[in-house]
Amino acid sequence: MGFFDTILFPIQWVVAWIMYGSHQLFTTLGFEDGPGFAWVLSIVALVVVIRIVLIPLFFKQIKASRGMQMMQPELQAIQKKYKNKKDPSSREAMGRETMELYRKHGTNPMASCLPILLQSPIFFALFRVLYNLRPIADGTQEPIGPIDAAVAGDIEESSLFGAQLSDVFMQTDDWGARITILFLIVAMSATTFFTQRQLTMKNMPKAALEGPMANTQKMMLYVLPLIFLVSGVNFPVGVLIYWTITNLWSMGQQFYTIKRMPAPGSEAERILNEKRAAKAAKKGIVLEEPTEIEPPKPVGQRQQPVRKNRKKKKK
């Protein structure tokens, strides 16, 4: 067992048991035992189990993202205040005020990335489980949890539209399998793009769509799908299925959250308010338009009041 497998082994063990238990459930429901579609569904079940476990973190992510959005005007004011100041004391003061702003809004830049960061070890663990199926089936590697030689052989022979779960685009000569893999790579990249676009474009106030951080988010909107598009040729079919289903779950979860609880000042909030006003109008009720929140004044020294010149008394 290599160093990478040694580190990921506990997570691989959990992944193996979830897949095996899900397969047992599907066969009980009538799916064919052995190689078959039940093993494909076991990867879908793995996504469902992991995402249910991560639901509390998802709400923390939403809270953190909204905090980042709402603090953008104040953050831009700080950046403007120290724009042309490069001395160490000014840079230190800018960092101190920025951290104080994060504490005020109860957020930080990393909090919105927690779900994807926590899913990365699971992603790589599944990758290693699928990658090691052939050695386990051949008896040249130790089983991973319940996945022994017989079970590994069944998983490896299971396929989706002619592509086996362990097939990799760069390692197969079957063009039927390669076409399926290319379709999954495009699906993974496209769902990644639309998931990010849904979150950034529909659930952010106008102030959050401007500035350096917004430009970085817009860049990542296109960079991440491109990275997946290029690197997907090295992923097994099972991993491509896992990531695509994960993205679809995220899209559905975000769609529900954005529709029911949009961020203040966002396009989604405007649409929700219009729908509520239309429903109220049908009942003869007139709703008050929400007052627009004024952006905070730039952070800086308070301007001192100016006294009026007093007239000198004549002696």
From TrEMBL:
Per UniProt, subcellular location reads as: Cell membrane; Membrane
- Compositionally biased, Basic residues: which spans? 305-315
Q: Residue ranges of the Membrane insertase YidC/Oxa/ALB C-terminal domain? A: 39-258
Pfam families, per the entry: 60KD_IMP (PF02096)
| Bilayer topology term | Multi-pass membrane protein
InterPro entries given in the database record: YidC/ALB3/OXA1/COX18, YidC/Oxa/ALB_C, YidC_ALB_C
Membrane-spanning ranges: 7-26, 38-59, 175-194, 221-245
In this chain, the stretch annotated as Disordered covers 287-315
Key words, A-Z = Cell membrane, Chaperone, Membrane, Protein transport, Transmembrane, Transmembrane helix, Transport
**Top-rank taxon, per record:** Bacteria
Summarizing the function annotation, the protein's role is: Required for the insertion and/or proper folding and/or complex formation of integral membrane proteins into the membrane. Involved in integration of membrane proteins that insert both dependently and independently of the Sec translocase complex, as well as at least some lipoproteins. Aids folding of multispanning membrane proteins.
Which family is this protein grouped under?
Belongs to the OXA1/ALB3/YidC family. Type 1 subfamily.
Query: Matching PANTHER family, A to Z?
Result: CYTOCHROME C OXIDASE ASSEMBLY PROTEIN COX18, MITOCHONDRIAL, OXA1
State whether it acts alone or in a complex, and with which partners, per the record.
Interacts with the Sec translocase complex via SecD. Specifically interacts with transmembrane segments of nascent integral membrane proteins during membrane integration.
What is the designated name of this protein?
Membrane protein insertase YidC
Organism, per UniProt? Isoptericola halotolerans
